[in-house]
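Would you be willing to look carefully at the protein I have copied below?

:::
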Amino acid sequence: MGNSNKRVLYLNGYQWLWVLYIAVAMFTAVLKYNRNIDNNYKIFRASYYHAREEKTLYGFYPQEYGDEYFYGPVFAAIIAPSALLPHFWGFLLWELINAMAILMAVHLLPFTQRQKNQLLLLCAIEYANSIFYMQFNPAITAMILLSFILVERGREQWATLFIVLGTLIKLYPIIGLTFFLFSKNKGRFVLWSAIWSVVFWRCQC
C-alpha cells in the first residue's frame, strides 16, 4: 500500500496534467448529469436516434431538448457508441473521449515534455470551458493536430481522413488542407482527400 501511494504522489508534472484533464471530464459529467443541465449532450445523443429513425437532424424537438442541432450528418454516427449506452454512462464516455482525444494528440506532437506541459497548461481553461458545456471542440482540435502529425510522418491517407471527417462534422478542420504545403507526398494527399470525401459523402446520403 505504501509503495502504491508513493507511485501516485511522485507522478511527474506531465502525468498530473493528464490526471487533471481526465478529472475535469469526470467531475463535469457527474455534476451536469445530476443537475440535469446536459442539454448539448442530449442534442448530440438524439442525433443518432433521429438518424436511425430517418428523421431530419435539423428539426425542432422541444420535447427532447432546447436549441438546435448544428453539426454535419456524419456526426450522428460518431456519437453512436455513446448514444447506445445508458444516458449517464454515455455522457461520461463522451466527456472522457474528448479529454483523451486532446491528450493523445498533444502526446504525439514532436515536442519536449516541457513544451507539452506548457501547451496543456495554456489550453487548460479553454478545455475546461468546452468540457463544461459538453462541446466537441477538444476532439475537433485533436483532429487538426493529428492530421498535421500524420502529414509530418508521411501518412497522408490517415491525415486526410481526419481533415475530411472533421470538416464534415464542423467546418474548422478544413484548415488542415493547408498541411498540403508540408506534405512530401502531395499527389497522395490530393488522392486520399478525394477518396475520403467520396466515402463520407456517400455515407451521408
User: Anything to note?
Assistant: The chain has a mean pLDDT of 91. DSSP finds ten helices and no strands in the chain. Residues 136-205 form one domain. The longest helix spans residues 13-34.
